[in-house]
Design goal:
Elements (H helix, E strand, L loop, with lengths): L63 H8 L8 H9 L2 H12 L4 H48 L7
Helix pairs in contact: 3-4
Length: 161
């Protein structure tokens, strides 16, 4: 008996149900990545439709080339997961998001939602970040003191390779 050939490709079907608002590319499929803000990307000039994850991270640093050489690739000006947790817990953001949906995701409704998010970031997220940083600032000061002491004692570490 001959073996039947297995098909490894899925049929391409348009979704039968589409949400009333979808982000623009390259963030149009962010829901497939668990709705995590750390997956938000700016479109890149050379990205193509079939790229797995085109564009650079929204929360990444613009001038990262020199920093990447020193610290590695994952350099962010703010932690998107922390911001998302704080905004997810905000009643004002939830209400504004619902109002945006009720207004059929109009540009004005999205602008109002953005305004609420900016206000919540200023009034809730930044104070929380500041309070948490103050708790660890002694250790940060000790880190910088130890680092300068090390540099003054041993000099800059040069990579021998």
């Amino acid at each position: 008996m001959a073996k039947s050939k297995l098909s490894r490709k899925l049929d391409k079907k348009e979704p039968t149900v589409k949400p009333p608002f979808v982000m623009a590319e390259p963030n149009d499929d962010v829901g497939a990545f668990g709705w995590s803000m750390d997956r938000l990307r700016y479109p890149s000039a050379d990205s193509k439709k079939d790229d797995v994850w085109p564009g650079r991270p929204v929360f990444g640093l613009e001038e990262a080339n020199d920093l990447v050489k020193q610290y590695g690739f994952n350099i962010e000006f703010v932690n998107p997961r922390f911001v998302q947790v704080m905004l997810d817990s905000s009643p004002a953001v939830r209400i504004a998001a619902q109002q945006c949906a009720d207004a059929k995701y109009s540009p004005d409704a999205i602008a109002k939602l953005r305004s609420v998010i900016n206000t919540e970031f200023k009034q809730r997220v930044i104070p929380e970040m500041t309070a948490r940083f103050k708790k660890v600032s002694k250790m940060v000061a000790e880190f910088y003191a130890a680092r300068i002491a090390h540099l003054q004692t041993f000099g800059n570490d040069e990579d021998e390779n």
